[in-house]
Amino acid sequence: MPKRRLSERQRRRIQAIQERRRQRLESRTSAVLDDLDAERDTGAATTGPGDGAEPAVGERQSQQGSVITRHGAHLAIEAADGSLHHCVARRNIGQPVCGDRVIWVPTEPSRGVVTALAERENVLSRPDYAGRDKPLAANLTLLAVVVAPEPPPSGFLLDQYLVAAELMGVRALVVAAKMDLLDTPARRAFIDALAPYPELGYPVCPVSTKGSPGITALLPHLTAQTAILLGQSGVGKSSLVQLLLPDQDIQVGRLSAATGLGRHTTSTATCYRLPPGDAAGGRLIDSPGVRSFRLAGLSQAQLEDGFPELGTVRGECRFRDCRHLDEPDCAVRAAVAAGSIHPQRLARFQQLREGLVR
Ligand SMILES: Nc1nc2c(ncn2[C@@H]2O[C@H](COP(=O)(O)OP(=O)(O)OP(=O)(O)O)[C@@H](O)[C@H]2O)c(=O)[nH]1
Ligand SMILES: [Zn+2]
């Protein structure tokens, strides 16, 4: 497979499409933070006692915080100064999840009440036992999709996660894990098969948790990001979390000492700080429960948004509702024939369209 299929012009167009989407996300983020400030300056500080079951808030100063983890009605909130507090949420504000930005009011040392929940920029959800979407983590900025030689990679799943990242307006990268299982030629072939991704804006980071080569190259991608690892069962996500968060136990201990929460981290999402250094300011949300979500019920236009390279020929097919299958004058198939859209990506698009489009 040739390494470079896209022209420089197309690469720039793809970058522009992704950049616009991220800028929309960033401007939404600052609007959300402004709203939160306004909320803090007006309502929350003067809110009276709750509806009986909640502790009185009184006249204390409300402040911004973010949700580190949630156990039922109990939340661990990190204040702007990094301190941790055990809070309960007002009943009428919805269900805050890990990563949510909130306004909270201290009631006693290390305790407080969450009085407002900011609008989410994005949320990762998973269907519950009744098939309803259950939010698990909010306000992510990076999906790190892990693939490995074992279990054999599913390109279909990989592309599905990448579509999710595009639709959430977040960055994505591909972690090629367990590289120690392959000899040099096999490793090269594995990475070559992922060649279309870097030029679509998804860096590929080969790593191994045995002896940890590659981790140093992965860390800068996590700088200042709020990231989550996704991927099939057994690709090595837990092993990577252990390596990326060498002080995870210490962080859990601190969380538990301050809030009484955080000990039972196996199913609920918890937000950890990546160690200072190459991933400075980065956070990693560890949530075994969200690691393999699925997309569902998209429109064809939404699915097309999930493939940035399709954006480079948007509106150029003869038929507006072209499925890019056998229609005449299809600009997408023309781009495949010309070598600027990878045939495998169109095949995945078709596979996802059949399974997902309403
Ligand atoms: N050879 C090798 N084995 C690895 C590496 N990373 C993880 N493994 C092994 O792969 C298996 C699965 O690893 P996990 O980290 O549990 O995978 P996971 O993706 O978290 O799996 P789930 O929890 O089921 O989603 C374990 O037996 C690990 O020891 C690696 O870099 N090299
Ligand atoms: Zn078409």
Automatic annotation (TrEMBL):
CDD domains: YjeQ_EngC (cd01854). It is an enzyme of class 3 (hydrolase). InterPro entries: G_CP_dom, NA-bd_OB-fold, P-loop_NTPase, Ribosome_biogen_GTPase_RsgA, RsgA_GTPase_dom. Monomer. Associates with 30S ribosomal subunit, binds 16S rRNA. Residues 138-291 form the EngC GTPase domain. Residues 121-293 form the CP-type G domain. Residues 43-56 have a biased composition (Low complexity). It comes from Thiohalocapsa halophila. SUPFAM superfamilies: P-loop containing nucleoside triphosphate hydrolases. Residues 18-27 have a biased composition (Basic and acidic residues). Zn(2+) binds at C317, C322, H324, C330. Keywords: Cytoplasm, GTP-binding, Hydrolase, Metal-binding, Nucleotide-binding, Ribosome biogenesis, RNA-binding, rRNA-binding, Zinc. This is Small ribosomal subunit biogenesis GTPase RsgA. The keyword Oxidoreductase does not apply. The gene is rsgA. Residues 18-66 are annotated as: Disordered. It is found in: Cytoplasm. GTP binds at A177, K178, M179, D180, G231, Q232, S233, G234, V235, G236, K237, S238, S239. Its EC number is 3.6.1.-. NCBIfam families: ribosome small subunit-dependent GTPase A.
